[in-house]
What we know:
- It is a single chain.
- With about 230 residues, the protein is α+β, with helices and mostly antiparallel strands.
- The chain has helices at about 10-20, 95-100, 110-115, 165-170; strands at about 25-30, 45-50, 55-65, 70, 75, 120-125, 130, 135-140, 145-150, 180-185, 190-195, 200-205, 215-220.
- The strands form two sheets. A nine-stranded antiparallel sheet has the order 5-6-7-8-9-13-12-11-10, with helices on one face. It has a four-stranded antiparallel sheet with strand order 1-2-3-4, with helices on one face.
- The chain starts with 10 loop residues before the first helix and ends with a strand.
- The model has no long low-confidence stretch (mean pLDDT about 85).
Amino acid sequence: MLEGQDLKLTKEEAKTLLSKKFGKVTFVKEYDFVKELDSKETHGKSYLFKVNDSYSEHYVVISSENTHLINNYPMELPSKNKVKNKKETLGKFNIFNEYLTKMHLGLTKEELINQFGEPNAEKVTASDTILEYADAIYTVSEATNQVYQVEIIGEKAATYYKDFEEVSKAYNIDEEYAAFLESKTKDAKGYHLIYDNNYDTKHIYTSDNKNGNPIKSILVQKLSYK
Length: 226
């Protein structure tokens, strides 16, 4: 690549350069300004391309000024819905023992859209496609095309359990055998109550308050689908 050289590329020249590095690339759009490229060394017009290689689909941005690259550019695709999709994707259930059958883990992107319609937002990264609905965010693996992570968001997240104490009671019904190890952490996003089976499954309850009332998000991962 000619990254760092002082060139002004046309769209066609940029495509030729990227094709030599990545193989098949498709032009998506032109930017007059991209924040990541705006510096003393890189600024001005940039081109966004979709890359399709043998393993995945992702996006790259290349500067027309000096061919500086941003690989794996996070691309948020415009929703096909002119009207916001308000349809909820999840009902009320006990997450502890019903998450595998009620949270759509393992569904393909196409199956999810067939059931619930187009998402309100879609973002494509190098390894995942992220679909946002009114009540939950679904992460689909590019490798398997299966949902491996679901995050319940908004007011919906507060409807399953009142607080962390209630969550703990639901998960610790057997005093001798625990399906998950329980732990607590805190960071800039809030207080977290975490359940981990030390294999492929993790449940994370998050709240702005230490007692977990109200719960503002519930994230469930099943990494065997990734």
